[in-house]
Amino acid sequence: MARRFLPSRSSNVSSFVKASDLSVAHQWRGRVVDLSDHRDSAGWRAAQALALEGAEVFVGDSPARDRARRFDQLAKARGLEHLTLQWAGESRGEILSGLCPPHAEKIALKDAEVPSEGRENPTGVVTLVGGGPGDPSLLTIAALTAIAHADVVLLDRLGIALNVVELAPAALVIDVGKAPGRHKMPQEEIHETMLAFAREGARVVRLKGGDPFIFGRGGEEWRFLAENGVRVEVVPGITSGLSVPAHAGVSATYREVTRAVTIISGHQPFNQSELSSLVSLGSTIVILMGVATFPSTVAGLREAGLPDSTGVALLEKGYTSNERHTFTTLGTAIEDARSRKVTNPAIIVIGDVVGVREVSAEISEAQG
Q1: Concatenated DSSP letters for 43-108?
Q2: Which of 13, 259, 277, 310 is spaced 20 to 30 A from 115 at the CA atom?
């Protein structure tokens, strides 16, 4: 049975649809709304958003609704029911076809430009969107716009924290997130899924944690889609490699402490030559996906001559309610990480900048 993450019904319509799409933005519970003259994508998105708010919405014969149902059928044909968090064609509220009562409120909508709609064999577009470190307030305006106008959203594991269902009330939302060693969908299948929906004419958003091109495989996805004739757009995101340390008060390039920062993937163990080069460079070392290899990394850096007094910050679950910081030094880092049971997702910062962090930004080191 598909898991569901339903949005709160207490938020405003503007939480779901851009302010420019609706002429008003306030509570709609119990009101009757006439959208029967709007048969485009904006009309269907507005109907979904207003119905979620508790309004009774009347729509006419809606090609946009039929289009949404077509994407749902494609997802079922590809066997994606177990990964679907939200179906595009479901009303999720009171949406009715037929004559609208005379007392209903009429709303003027402005649809987004969708060049492919109406063509016999449309080709959609895929937008690679960086979701940032996990706090929805750190999404860019371009990211919010792309999500609000999406037909299909393929969601990364870290993107679930963004509560994307609230931001895309009329989209098919599919969870394709990956955890270390546990992939709900192989990368090659993610490629093929984006291609299949784009060929069906969908506006596809590939929502990725952080920035799509910082260890996010955005380049691979772009190349695959481009080679298959699909237009790709890119919305950069705030990378967790720099924003999470900043949130903990750690400046990666603190003046007169270091003039360089190296962001590196710790998914695979480093060889001694790589670690020696990092020590020689003297930069701040920021490691993503490095918890499993952390003991060997620390041992190798010490062997390469990095002093035991060098500061280390292990920053878990940044920008979430479960955020936790562990500040230590290279000499005791392995023991401290083990005793604190540090787990992914975590950003690891190694360097003297850790010792000059802004204490006012800290979360208590004793926090469980």
Answers
A1: HHHHHHHHHHTT-EEEE-S-HHHHHHHHHHHHHHHTT-GGGEEE-SS--SSEEEESPPPTTPEE--
A2: 13
Choosing from 18, 178, 184, 336, which is the catalytic residue? 178
8 A C-beta contact, residue 48 and residue 16: yes
DSSP for 29-47?
A: TT-EEE-TT--SHHHHHHH
Is residue 178 annotated as part of the catalytic site, yes or no? yes
What are the helix and strand counts (H, E) for the chain?
10, 17
pLDDT digits (tens, 9 = 90+) for 293-308: 999 999 999 999 999 9
**Considering the entire predicted model, what is its pTM?**
0.81
Q: Are 151 and 124 in contact (CB under 8 A)?
A: yes
Within the chain, which residues score under 50 in pLDDT?
1-25, 115-118, 364-368
* Catalytic residue (one of 40, 156, 175, 211): 156
- Let me know if 111 is a catalytic residue: no
- pLDDT at res. 18: 38
CA distances (Å), 103 to each of 52, 56, 57, in order?
Answer: 20, 12, 12
Residue 187 tokens read as 């990368």
